[in-house]
């Protein structure tokens, strides 16, 4: 019941704000960007990326990235040594700083490529029936490239990315478990964003 009230409150606030957001004629000075990754919903996950453009030309953005999701087996096999399909793997928490710089290749268009960096901390849980849960705590360093493709009024955009995640200083909670986190993972991502 408590979660239903929270969800309803968020939806109500968004519905009140949506007409105002899309009625704006001049969005050139809008510096705040909100993004989420819809593909994570299919893996029992969610994400939120809040970016603020700090330069006058809106090319450099700094923000906070939060994420949690189940990790599909095909990705987990590339992420761990000795991973098998009888395991369940989940990123339970990720908190990160996100920095992104957009290149104005098309000078008169808002849609342009960018490079970025995610620096943060992640907790990964591996479960196997009959065994103690394995928690990995690790720092991550993730350079990425992407493209902001604006589809509506220079406000709503689709954001495909290729990320190269480097895991640094990983510690695991159960030393006897054979699963070992690899130090590198390349993963694609698509998010939807709104500039407000």
Structural class: mainly beta
Mean of pLDDT: 86
Kindly state the percentage of residues in helix.
10-25%
Low-confidence parts: 19-24
The spatial strand order of the largest sheet comes to 1-2-3-5-6-7-8-10
Number of helices: 2
CATH topology: Porin
- Straight-line N-to-C gap: 31 Å
- Name of the CATH first level: Mainly Beta
**How many domains?**
1
Q: How would the global form be characterised? A: elongated
List SSEs in N-to-C order.
HEEEHEEEEEEE
Largest sheet properties: 8 strands, antiparallel, barrel
Radius of gyration: 19 Å
How large is the share of residues in beta strands?
A: over 45%
Number of strands: 10
Architecture (CATH level 2) name: Beta Barrel
Overview of the molecule:
It is built from two helices and ten strands, in the order αβββαβββββββ. Mean pLDDT is 86; it is low at 19-24. The protein has a single domain (2-195), classed as Porin (Beta Barrel), CATH 2.40.160.20. It is mostly beta strands and 196 residues long. The protein is elongated.
Descriptive terms for the model:
single chain, 196 residues, mainly beta, Porin, eight-stranded antiparallel beta barrel, two-stranded antiparallel ribbon, 2 helices, elongated
